[in-house]
Amino acid sequence: MGENKKRMLAGDWYLPDDPELKEDTQRRIELCDAYNAPGAGQPRHILERLLGAMGERVRIRAPFFCDYGYGISIGTGTFVNFGAVFLDAAPISIGRDVQIGPHVQLLTPSHALDAERRRAGWERAEPVVVGDNVWLGGGVIVCPGVTIGENAVVGAGSVVTKDVPAGVLAVGNPARVVRELPE
């Protein structure tokens, strides 16, 4: 494994145009294209090759998009609706029995705030964790480094910039907790 990829996986600054990462991207393109092809029926064997780990009874509706795939783990019984974008330059961990609405984005990479560094292409990534039995409404965006606690619900269209505790309803941009949920 090359130094640049090691830096990426460690959460340090890396360059996404690295030849090794380009190879990983090409692998992802081929697998996502096969999965998303009209009439393909979203076969599980493609997801098993694409994703880092996947439990039983996982359903992902096409189209589905990711950066690499190998950084994504999805727990048993989870459902991912149409148009999901999972940018997995850092790990994305999704628990059991999670419901993910259409066009949800789980984003691990971010760019440098310094304009010169950003122009040079530097990125770094922080993990995203979604706990068991979470519901992410349609169009939710989860930003790098965020953890969403088990049994939480994030309302449609929310932008989650900070951790969401377990058992709460969070809504808005930026998402904020509006109430606790009954057990």
Describe what this molecule looks like in 3D.
- This protein has one domain (3-180): UDP N-Acetylglucosamine Acyltransferase, domain 1 (3 Solenoid).
- Helices cover 20% and strands 30% of the residues.
- It has helices spanning 3-9, 19-36, 44-50, 115-119; strands at 53-54, 59-60, 64-66, 72-74, 79-80, 84-87, 92-94, 99-100, 105-107, 109-111, 123-125, 128-130, 135-136, 141-142, 147-148, 153-154, 159-160, 168-172, 175-180.
- Strands 2-5-8-13-16-18-19 form a 7-stranded mixed beta sheet, with no helix packed on it.
- Helix 2 runs antiparallel to helix 3 (44-50).
- The chain is globular.
- The model has no long low-confidence stretch (mean pLDDT 96).
State the end-to-end CA separation: 45 Å
Largest sheet at a glance?
7 strands, mixed
Low-confidence stretches: none
Instruction: Report Rg.
Output: 16 Å
Whole-number count of domains = 1
Which percent band covers the strand fraction?
Answer: 25-35%
Give me the CATH architecture, please: 3 Solenoid
Lateral arrangement of strands in the main beta sheet: 2-5-8-13-16-18-19
CATH class designation: Mainly Beta
| Average residue pLDDT | 96
**Helical percent range?**
10-25%
CATH third-level topology:
UDP N-Acetylglucosamine Acyltransferase, domain 1
Q: Supply the CATH superfamily name.
A: Hexapeptide repeat proteins
Order of helices and strands: HHHEEEEEEEEEEHEEEEEEEEE
Number of strands: 19
Shape: globular
What is the tally of helical segments?
A: 4
Structural class: alpha/beta
